[in-house]
Amino acid sequence: MAKRRSYKDEDIPKLNREQSREQLAFLASFLKPYRWKIAFALTVLVLSSAVSLAFPALIGKLIDAVLNEASSEYPLGTIAMVLVVVLILQSVTRFFTSMTLATITENTLGQLRTTLFDRIIRLPMAFFGERRVGELSSRMSSDLSLIQETFTFTFLELLRQSVFFVGSVILIAGRSLRLTGMILLVVPILVVVALLFARYIRKYSRDAQDALADAATIVEETLQGIAGVKSFVNEHYESSRYNSAIMRGVGIALKGAKIRSAFVSFIIFALFAGIAGVIWYGGSLVRSGEMTMGDLTSFIIYTTFVGGALGSFAELFGQIQRTLGASVRVREILNETPENLALTTISGNTTSFSQNGATAHESSDKATTARFHSVEFAKVVFHYPGRKDIAALNDVSFSIGAGERVAFVGESGAGKSTTAALIQRFYDVDAGEIRFDGIAASRLPLGAVRESVGIVPQDIVLFGGTIADNIRYGNLQATDEQLWEAARLANATEFIEQFPDKLQTLVGERGVKLSGGQRQRVAIARAILKNPPILILDEATSSLDSQTEYLIQEAMERLMKGRTTVIIAHRLSTVRRCDKILVFSKGRIVESGTHDELLSAKDSLYAKLCALQFGDIETVSYN
Fold this sequence. Notes:
- This protein has about 625 residues and is an alpha/beta fold.
- It contains 20 helices and twelve strands.
- It folds into three domains: about 10-175 and about 310-340, ABC transporter type 1, transmembrane domain (ABC transporter transmembrane region fold); about 175-290; about 405-430 and about 440-620, P-loop containing nucleotide triphosphate hydrolases (Rossmann fold).
- Helix content is about 60%, strand content about 10%.
C-alpha cells in the first residue's frame, strides 16, 4: 500500500537571514490592518514585563522588613500593598495583551486560511496532478497551526523573556558584581548542556510523531478499503501491521522518555545546586554585612529569571525559524497563478470577450452568459505535466457540431478521458488548437467554457451533505421545485421519496449511504439543473442491475436531448445510435464513422472491439 508522506521538521525549509526577513515581512503583511493595535498591545506588554521586574525587589524588601522592621526603609504594610498592586497590574495587563493579540491573530489566521483555500481551489488541474491531497491538507492545518502558535505565544514570550533577561542582568549587577560574575559564568554552561539534551528530545519526539503518522496511515487505508480487507479475510494481517507500527512508536517514545527523564533530573540537580551555591556564597556576604537577606532573596529570584530566559531563547528562536520555513510553503501556494474563471456576459445582440488581448464576437438575442455548442480539435498534442516524455494525445483532430452525439471508444489509456478533460479546459494543449463555436479556446474566458460543459462521470463523487445540496451543486440558485423537477427527469424521485427526510436525506461521505445507481441519478439530476449545451457522459452502467440500468439510460436520454453530447463508451452496445464514433488508440484517433460504417470494415479496430465484447459481429450489426 502507498505510504503517505509525513511532515517532519526536516521538510521545513531552512532559511538564511535575508530569507527570514523576507518571510517575516510576508507574515507581517497580513497583520498590517491591525498594526496600531499590535503596537499598543506590545508597548503595554513591555511595560508590564518591566513592572514585573519589581516583584523580586519587593520580595527582598518584604523579607528585610519582616526580619528587621525598625530599620526598614518602608513600613511592612506599604510594601505588601505595593506588591499586591504589582501582581494585579501584571495579571490585568497580561490578560489584556494576550486577548488583544489573540483576537488579532485569530482574525488574521482566519483570513489567511480563507485566502489559502480560495487560492488552492482556483489553481489548475496540473497543480493537483503534482501534489497529494495530504500535502495540501498539511498546508491548511499543520503549517498554519504552526504560524498561529508563533503569533499567539512565541513572539510574546520572546519579547517578555528579553525584557526579563536584560532587566534582571542589570538589576543583579547593581546588587553584587561578584555574585553576578559567578552566575554569568555558570549559567551559559548549563544552557549549552540543556540545548544538547533538547536536540535529542526533539529528535525522538519527531520520530515518535512519524511513527504515529505511519500508524494513522494504516488506520486510514484500512478503513477506506474495509470492503477489500473483509473480502480477502485480511483482518488479522491489518491488525498485525497496525500493532507493529504502534510498538515501533512505543519503542521510540520510551527512548525519548529516558532522555527526557535524564534531562529533568539534570535540570533539578543544576537548579538546586545553583541555588545552594548562591545561598552559600551569598550567605557569607550577608554574614559579613555586604548584603541583606532581602537582597539575597531578590538576587536568587532575578537569577532564575536570567536562567529561564536563556533556557527559553533557543527553543523560541527555533520555533520562529520553523514558522518562517512553514510560511515559505504557504507562500509558494499563494504565489501560484490561479485560473481566470471570469464569465462573459452578452449584452444586446453582441457578445465580446477579451482575454490575452484577443477579442471575439458572437450574436445573441438576449442578455445571458456566453455559452458554446460545438467543439473542434485541430492537430492537438498534449502531455500531462508530470509525464512530458509520453504524449497522451498526438495530432488529434475532430469536430463535433451543435446537437451532435459522438462516442469515444478504445482501450484503456487510449486518450478518451484526456480528451474529455481538455474539452473542459482542465489543461492547456502543448500544440494545436481547441475551438468552441469556431473560436480558439485560448481566446475565451475559462469560466464561460466550463459553464457550457456538463459531465456525468463514471466515478460519481458526492459531497457529504444532503441530496438537495448535491443536486443544487449544478445551480446554487435553484428552488426546491426545480430540484424536484430535475430529480424527476433523472428518475431519482422513486428512491428519494422513500427516504423519511426526502431531499434533506444525508448521503454520507462521498455518498456512501446511496447505492451506485442512486448516486448516478443524483449526478444526472445535478447535470440537468446545470443545463449545459455540451454534455460529457462517462458511461458506467455495466455493474448495475437491469431495472436500474434502464432507469439511468432513460434519464440519460432525457439529459442528452437537444445537447451536444460526448459519450465515453465502455459498453459498445450504447453507441450504435451516435452520429459519429471516434476510435482512439495510443493517443490518436485511428478510425471514425457511424456504427454500421465501422462495423462493415472487417479489419477495423472497432469491429475487433465489438467482436471481443459480443463474440458475434453479425448479431451486433442488427441488434
